[in-house]
UniProtKB/TrEMBL annotation:
Domain CR-type, residue spans: 130-208
Protein known as: Chaperone protein DnaJ
ZnF locations on chain (CR-type): 130-208
Keywords assigned: Chaperone, Cytoplasm, DNA replication, Metal-binding, Repeat, Stress response, Zinc, Zinc-finger
UniProt free text on domains: The J domain is necessary and sufficient to stimulate DnaK ATPase activity. Zinc center 1 plays an important role in the autonomous, DnaK-independent chaperone activity of DnaJ. Zinc center 2 is essential for interaction with DnaK and for DnaJ activity.
Classification via InterPro entries: DnaJ, DnaJ_C, DnaJ_domain, DnaJ_domain_CS, HSP40/DnaJ_pept-bd, HSP_DnaJ_Cys-rich_dom, HSP_DnaJ_Cys-rich_dom_sf, J_dom_sf
Keyword Transferase assigned: no
Cofactor(s) this protein requires: Zn(2+)
GO cellular component: cytoplasm
Species, as recorded: SAR86 cluster bacterium
Cofactor binding summary note: Binds 2 Zn(2+) ions per monomer.
Gene behind the chain: dnaJ
Binding site for Zn(2+) 2: 160, 163, 182, 185
């Protein structure tokens, strides 16, 4: 059976660049990898075919010979019968960034520190206006005794005897070469014979530190501030991680926030709702006057423009929306009850025109009940 054209195998044009070849090979190899297609002889054959094609086309000399003479211009036997022998090196180069292993070379035992997360509770006023807040966090810092190396003063970490300082070991499984984290040094590539007495070989020690966090105006729950280099110290002298401060705006006794807008509920008396009036309304900037028109119904929203929040990412300032709630009076005197009864009698004499919502509701109830009877 004749071999397919190598460019066809990888699905690229003849003039494809090296980067295009690498991307194409990665796509085909991942699709037909034996681990993804167990007991699939056809997929395994496609995988070996792609490996062979890439090994030829990724080499400038072999590619030139192939372009001129085709399959006769290259020697398949030199590739271990379909490229299986060279698979380990190609796998490392192409998939190292995916599976965390390189194709060779040394690996430093230096490791970046972990990122930390801190939840900062804020009241609404500080979140809207911004503030400077001091926080105290437990973290690890680079050990001063050993300068972060983890080794006792006067000594240095040694290359791991198992992996030779690479941090990984290579194992053969049939025709394939698989890289695994070194079981002795856990991927560090180094071992410490005499650990530092202060950090016990970690290169970092636990400590509490106080930081000043500048909270910008307009932040809301879920927003994060990144403090570079304020996370955990790196191992063996590696760079520190970052600290992410997450905002949590506490519930307010008066206002509720929805993005750039604020909401509040204002209780009003029956007489203010019926006759109208003027109320003092609180805002985050002080009190303002709100005019209540006569015949205002409970639940009505009044908008005070520009009395909300300026978003932290910019944009127009929001509004304050005041929802009025008519409050029923309690602890009525005898005279008040008499006046209310008198008012009720007068209202009944006026018919339904003074209570349109009540009338329409009872009409709806009557129609509903009548429909159930039929």
């Amino acid at each position: 059976m004749s071999k397919r054209d190598y460019y066809e195998v990888l699905g690229v044009e003849k003039g494809a660049s090296g980067q295009e070849l690498k991307k194409a090979y990665r796509r085909v190899a991942m699709k037909h990898h034996p681990d993804r297609n167990p007991d699939n002889d056809k997929a395994e054959a496609r995988f070996k075919e792609a490996n062979e094609a890439y090994e030829v086309l990724s080499d400038s000399e072999k590619r030139a010979a192939y372009d001129q003479f085709g399959h006769d211009g290259v020697n398949p036997q030199g590739m271990g019968g379909g490229g299986a022998q060279g698979f380990g090196d190609i796998f490392g180069d192409i998939f190292g960034d995916i599976f965390g292993g390189g194709g060779g070379g040394s690996r430093s035992h230096v490791q970046r520190g972990a990122d930390l997360s801190y939840t900062l509770d804020l009241n609404l006023e500080d979140a809207v206006k911004g503030s400077n807040v001091k926080i105290r966090i437990p973290t690890s810092i680079s050990c001063k005794t050993c300068d972060g190396s983890g080794a006792k003063s006067g000594t240095t970490p040694e290359d791991c005897a198992t992996c030779g300082g690479v941090g990984q070991v290579r194992m053969r499984q049939g025709p394939f070469s698989v890289q695994q984290t070194c079981p002795r040094c856990q991927g560090a590539g180094k071992t410490i014979k005499d650990p530092c007495h202060s950090c016990h070989g970690r290169g970092a020690v636990q400590e509490n530190k106080t930081l000043s966090v500048k909270v910008p105006a307009g932040v809301d729950t879920g927003d994060r501030i990144r403090l570079s280099g304020e996370g955990e110290a790196g191992l063996h002298g590696g760079p520190a991680g970052d600290l992410f401060v997450q905002m949590n705006v506490k519930a307010h006794q008066i206002f509720e926030r929805d993005g750039r807008d604020l909401y509040c509920e204002i209780p009003i008396s029956f007489t203010d709702a019926a006759l109208g009036g003027e109320l003092e309304v609180p805002t985050l900037e002080g009190k303002v006057k709100l005019k209540i028109p006569s015949e205002t119904q409970t639940g009505k929203l009044f908008r005070l423009r520009g009395k909300g929040v300026t978003p932290v990412r910019g944009g127009a300032k929001g509004d304050l929306l005041c929802r009025v709630a008519m409050e029923t009076p309690i602890h009525l005197t005898k005279r008040q009850k008499e006046l209310l009864h008198e008012f009720e009698e007068i209202q009944k004499s006026q018919g339904d025109r003074q209570s349109p919502k009540k009338t329409s509701w009872f009409d709806g109830v009557k129609k509903f009940v009548d429909a159930l009877k039929t």
